[in-house]
Specification:
- This protein is α+β, with helices and mostly antiparallel strands.
- The protein has a domain at 23-106: TATA-Binding Protein.
- It has helices at 2-5, 36-40, 91-96, 98-101, 116-124, 137-145, 151-165, 182-187, 190-195, 200-211, 213-217, 224-232, 239-249, 263-272, 279-286, 293-303, and strands spanning 23-27, 52-54, 60-66, 69-77, 82-87, 167-168, 177-178.
- The strands form two sheets. The chain has a five-stranded antiparallel beta sheet with strand order 1-5-4-3-2. Strands 6-7 form a two-stranded antiparallel sheet.
- β6 and β7 (177-178) form a beta hairpin.
- It starts with a helix and ends in a 19-residue tail after the last helix.
- Residues 1-66 are annotated as: Disordered.
- InterPro entries: Alkylbase_DNA_Glycosylase/TA, DNA_glycosylase.
- Residues 1-45 have a biased composition (Low complexity).
């Protein structure tokens, strides 16, 4: 009984230091509402992405390695106004880029639905904007990791490599990291790629890309067609990877992800009742949306009109030597 009423030993757990205030900015789109999760959601690489986090207060946190250095951005939004705070060497760069990130350079008014399903999805999500990060490698590398594997495998590889070779994000909650710089990616040894479940084909592609990192980043200032050409100069980067990268880096509204395992069947099922559509049929179905085909594809995915699975899910691969 004595122990029950003995005074407790004070906890030795350190009290977290209050987060230093960062630089701030407020921005409102010229017209229309802003849906923060829909606009920034494509930048998240899985639920445990160390470079992206959402918090119960509705904030989106993301980290980037900017031209000025590592940075963390926290964004909240009402229906028509975004409030942002940034930390780190690249904080000012991140705030300068905030309007583009949230879709200022997008033109949702140019989109005209041609199918009832697309029109309904468009009506329900008026705040969808196609943002641009202005950064190529941060979307290119995870896109390469996602080539020909399950998303679970790709997300795990990204998470492990960023946590091990990145750096703690300035001003961010614990567990958030800034991805490695190009030189660090280039120095990752082969056995670490293997431990992360990345085969040599994908790791070699990343290595080739980071060795010409400056040339890759120049694509952020190009029009989508020329930017895709620039990326595809790297062996191992094809139309799928270029599209997935540039949809995020430059908000390419018309770049369709061709070569995807599931997307043609989803588009075919939604617009023509053909779950067996190939890339050619998908592109034909999206032709009425020329100039806005990526937006149309996103709206179709958001509609939830996807065919039921008839085949087993793709199984994780095994890159262990036989």
């Amino acid at each position: 009984m004595a122990g029950r009423f003995a005074p407790r030993t004070p906890s030795r757990r350190p009290i977290p230091a209050p987060r230093a205030a960062g630089r701030t900015r407020t921005w409102a789109p010229a017209e229309g509402p802003l849906d923060l999760p829909l606009t920034l959601g494509p930048l998240r690489r899985g639920p445990a992405d160390p470079t992206y986090r959402t918090t119960p207060d509705g904030a989106v946190w993301r980290t980037s390695r900017t031209p000025a250095g590592p940075a963390t951005l926290r964004v909240t939004a009402t229906k028509d106004t975004a409030q942002a705070e940034a930390w780190g060497e690249g904080a000012e760069w991140m705030l300068d880029q905030l309007p583009a990130l949230l879709g200022e350079l997008d033109d949702p008014g140019a989109f005209a639905p041609r199918h009832r399903l697309v029109a309904e999805a468009h009506r329900r999500r008026p705040g969808l904007r196609l943002g641009r990060t202005g950064l190529v490698l941060e979307s290119l590398i995870p896109s390469v990791l996602e080539q020909k594997v399950t998303t679970t495998e790709a997300y795990r590889a990204w998470r492990l490599l960023v946590r091990k070779y990145g750096e703690p994000a300035p001003g961010a909650p614990d567990g958030m990291y800034v991805m490695p710089d190009a030189r660090t990616w280039a120095l990752i040894p082969s056995w670490e790629w293997h431990r992360a479940g990345v085969d040599s084909k994908r790791s070699d592609t990343v290595m080739r890309a980071v060795r010409v990192a400056r040339r890759m980043e120049e694509a952020a200032a190009m029009d989508p067609a020329k930017a895709a050409e620039r990326l595809r100069l790297i062996p191992g980067i094809g139309p799928w990877t270029a599209a997935e990268t540039l949809q995020r880096a430059i908000g390419a509204a018309d770049l369709v992800t061709v070569g995807d395992l599931h997307l043609p069947g989803i588009i075919g099922h939604a617009l023509a009742g053909n779950r067996n559509a190939d890339d050619a049929e998908m592109l034909a179905l999206l032709e009425p949306y020329a100039g806005q085909r990526h937006r149309a594809a996103r709206l179709i995915l958001l509609s939830g009109r996807t065919p039921e699975r008839r085949a087993p899910r793709m199984q994780p691969g095994n890159i262990a030597p036989l």
